[in-house]
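Objective 1b. Sequence-to-structure analysis of Transglycosylase SLT domain-containing protein.
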Amino acid sequence: MLLLILSVNSILAGELYEFAYVFLVNHKVPENHAKLMAKALEEEAEIVPKSVDPLYMLAFGLSETNFRNIFGDQGKAVGYFQLHENAVFYVANFYDDVKQFKQQHRNHVELINHPDWQLRIAYRYIYLTLRYVFDWDLARAISAYNGRSDKYNVYTIKFFHYYTKIISEYVAFLNSKKSNSSK
């Protein structure tokens, strides 16, 4: 298991984009959105500290909406990652580019048209809540992302189930790239 975690943490540029793009398209994300999100994921992996695995975001997308770009919580949650406006404001307090995005797109529902920003904001939000709210307790942060107060619940189980499958897919992807390059 440690080897898998080390493999995931040593993601090389380009490989994350390629894996994420194929993963998203395989989960029926429209190609244009898949490209935007894969690029954003790769860029954010360079910005967000390595303590937050970029593959978490794929697990959140599956856990929240099965990668559907929808409105939830009576229209209050937006997009693939079901972002609430207060989460966007929270992230904007730490990152100027998010603050500028929010100023340009004052109506929260506009976020539905920006899958790359949905991913950027969700990624940074999980990092910030891990660091400043939950003292790096991943299970609590995952649970709270879905609005739950109990640390262990069905949502947390679902997240880790997806995350485990994503790691397996990523390792298989890396192995197939290695075997193709050695031919």
